[in-house]
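Need tokens for this chain, all 264 residues.
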Amino acid sequence: MNTTYYLNPGDVTSIVADANVASGFYQILGNPGEPNQTAVSMLANSTKQLGPYNVGKYLKLSSMIGNISHSEEFGGFAFSDDVEGDNQSGSSPIASVSATESQGIWKRTVLTLTAVPIVITDDAGVIQFGGVKIYDFPEGLLNIQGAVVKGNLTAGVTGTVIAAFTGIVSLGTVTAATGATLISTQADILPSTALTQAVAKVSAVQAVSSATALTESGARWLDGTATAKDLYLNFKIADDATHTSGTASFTGTVEFVWATLGDA
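Here are the structure tokens for all 264 residues:
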């Protein structure tokens, strides 16, 4: 594996090496006219966090054996206390009420998935389904402003599936379960979206959490104050008599913008 990613200005990235990594490393590449930083070794089952960077950078990940992945989110910038001619804070008219306000509370997280395995269960005559947990949110009242899934689903890594399968994808706070649709908490972050019909068992995935009517919003409020929410990438494959249980894999990105309030 040898991959280079662009780190957006202000972003923080977490780099995770799986249990199989051998001879792995990461390296920050210099922009034109700048030297590359020294490559840093990654041990199996290790995690590194880098940034935030105030300018864009390129990150190189490499491993002869195993997989090194990275997730990216907006880390924020430093703001001046006062902006001349622009009062960006509110106030309370009651003397016994104090206000604490923050800037930069929104996070943009980009998860990069490389051949992530997904267990596919065959519910014969109904559907084939599978999901994988890809993110743990902190406790709190969670607001998801929007999400995008883009990449390729490869089915039939193990098991049997037709070459031109069809299906659906969603992001939810629980994993996919039996039933012909992805609904409720299986799709409460990004609603069910049709996959492109597969060619040679590979389906292109392009899904966004856009509103379907002018009176709707693509944003979601989720109550994770008692128990923190999880993020699952869910798939269902349309039934065929020849389909069996097995595994699929997804390679691509899952991107979302979010904020959380409190942990009461």
